[in-house]
Amino acid sequence: MSADSLKREAAARALDFVEPGMRLGLGTGSTAKHFVALLGERVRAGLDVVGVPTSEATRADAEAAGIRLATLDEVPALDLTVDGADEIAPDLSAIKGGGGALLREKIVAAASARMIVIADEAKWVDTLGRFPLPVEVVPFGLTPTLRAVEAAAQAAGCPGPARLRRTAEGHAFVTDGGHFILDLALGRIADPAGLADRLAAVPGVVEHGLFIGLVRLAVIAGASGVRIETAPSF
Ligand SMILES: O=C[C@H](O)[C@H](O)[C@H](O)COP(=O)(O)O
């Protein structure tokens, strides 16, 4: 089965957690895109929910699917967010931001009573860090911020180079919030919480892609089927 089919299976299973009247955070990326499409089918069949998209791309997909949308200012407390991930570990800590949407994704997740991550088996890892960690930074002072981000990783025991993310055309990638992304190649993050604290303390860092204590349930689709992994308080 292709990775894309597995992503769709995970997305389909996550629909079981959606109830009428829910206020939903809608994630970003190729897996979340399946969820939005499948949710749209339910909405067109009569399900009443309201969604808050985590990116302009998801906003466009959700609008096309016929899902009623709101902003977080209109609906500040959400029932459930369903989103993808770049890596997820057994304690349900995760790396997100491969698509550059980590800032809005984290704001929406933090405003949600529960967050479900949907992923194919390849995203399930023993230890986070093989996927380069996205760090969203303001363009002003990029070089000292990049150096400080590398120093923060070194101090957290996982040194690695930070690279400015670029588009295929070679321009700096710009997020929906007008920021840049540094991708931090660490290999193995032994202490995600310690690294998160150090990155958050760097002036110029807007947000990082470590999601710690936010994910309550993961739907993981593999060749042998779909399984549910839960955090203690789901
Ligand atoms: O910024 C993007 C998001 O964090 C995505 O949810 C993440 O990169 C996973 O994307 P995909 O489902 O395409 O692998």
TrEMBL record:
Keyword Isomerase among record annotations: yes
Sequence intervals crossing the membrane: none
Protein EC: 5.3.1.6
Pathway info: Carbohydrate degradation; pentose phosphate pathway; D-ribose 5-phosphate from D-ribulose 5-phosphate (non-oxidative stage): step 1/1
InterPro entries for the chain: NagB/RpiA_transferase-like, Ribose-5P_isomerase, Ribose5P_isomerase_typA_subgr, Ribose5P_isomerase_type_A
Catalytic activity from the UniProt record: aldehydo-D-ribose 5-phosphate = D-ribulose 5-phosphate
Assigned keywords, A-Z: Isomerase
Residues in the signal sequence: none
Active site residues per record: 105
MF (Gene Ontology): ribose-5-phosphate isomerase activity
Residues the entry annotates as binding substrate: 28-31, 83-86, 96-99, 123
Class of enzymatic activity (EC top level): isomerase
GO biological process: pentose-phosphate shunt, non-oxidative branch
Subunit structure: Homodimer.
Family statement: Belongs to the ribose 5-phosphate isomerase family.
Known role: Catalyzes the reversible conversion of ribose-5-phosphate to ribulose 5-phosphate.
Record protein name field: Ribose-5-phosphate isomerase A
Annotated source species: Rhodoplanes serenus
Organism placement in taxonomy: Bacteria, Pseudomonadati, Pseudomonadota, Alphaproteobacteria, Hyphomicrobiales
Gene designation: rpiA
